[in-house]
Amino acid sequence: MTDDPLAVVRQRLRTFAEAEAQTSPLYAHLAGQAAEDDEVAGLLLAAPLNHARPTLLLAAVHRLLAAAPVHPLSRYYPTMGGFDGVDDRTWPLFRSFVLERADEVRRLCATRFTQTNEVQRSALLYPAVAAVAKRARSPIALLEVGTSAGLLLGLDRYRYEYSFRADKFTAGPAKAALSLSCAVDGDGFTQPPKKLAVGARLGLDQAPVDLADEEQFAWLEACVWPDQLERVRLLHTAAAVQRRDPPELMTGDAVDDLSAAAGRLPGDLPLVVLTSHATTYLERPRREQFVATLTELARQRPLWWVASGPYESGIDLVVPGRDELSYRASGLSTLAVTEWVDGQPRGRVLAQHAHHGKRMTWLG
Questions:
Q1: For residue range 51-69, what is the model confidence (pLDDT) as tens digits?
Q2: Cα dihedral: 210, 307, 354, 189 (round 10)
Q3: Under CATH, what is the fold of the domain 119-362?
Q4: Cα–Cα distance list, 12 to 207, 293, 306, 321 (Å)
């Protein structure tokens, strides 16, 4: 890997455009163009390198455009009322908008984090978390690391519909305000547990989002891709559900404050630690420390780790030797569950899935 930070950022933009943004023609186009433009790509270097991701730059621009919706660039942003498809003016307008506000873009990149934590991913996580709770034969204590606004902490309050071949499976409260669907292929997928009992819940994040704060919620909206209006609708619905009974959110580091966060949850409940793409932002030594901390906590109480994200972002530490699952090889994220037995982690891969949770291939 190159040691040139700008080259790293440009490659991330290129990879995002070619492999990650296939469901967003707008973002695929903008990221691909930015990958070849040092002035625009270089703005991301205001962020620490591990956080200098394409989605951060694009969210910063989305937020600034929301504050200036009459700009002609808004014609390409459905969230701003635009309806034009990508054409030969899209990139020039984007580039001029960004460079005219370069200082503001740098400020947002330096002070904000990408914090979508897409609520649709609950559909991926629910079968794993509910199966763990069934195995534990007890209500669980749920601790989400990298929680953002804590929307995934409410996964027991949502309704789910899974389409698997000719079958349809449902789970969750029948009259839930938020309903999520997920298409499943592969082998061995069965009816998930109908109910999930969460006895306590806590979110840990370096910058938790307060949904009651207008500016913080606006940033959360900006992190949603602007040509995916269904995701915006789901965000607003999930936020309304959460505001009725908000979980406790704790400010802290994913590794250094993990034990303290676990200590705030009742010790008589089995602990399920949940991560959704959060470990992607940790360097490998920090991922190793994260797993080591989980191992220490597992000596004190029954503990499971439910992880969703690129295989090589930490799942490889507990399920080694599965390089075919890597993001580089598959272009997909991985869902895995780890249990500690006799002090040792035993990980199991359940599925691979697209980034935002609409489809998964069951492997478990």
A1: 999 999 999 999 999 998 8
A2: -120
A3: Rossmann fold (3.40.50)
A4: 24, 30, 26, 25
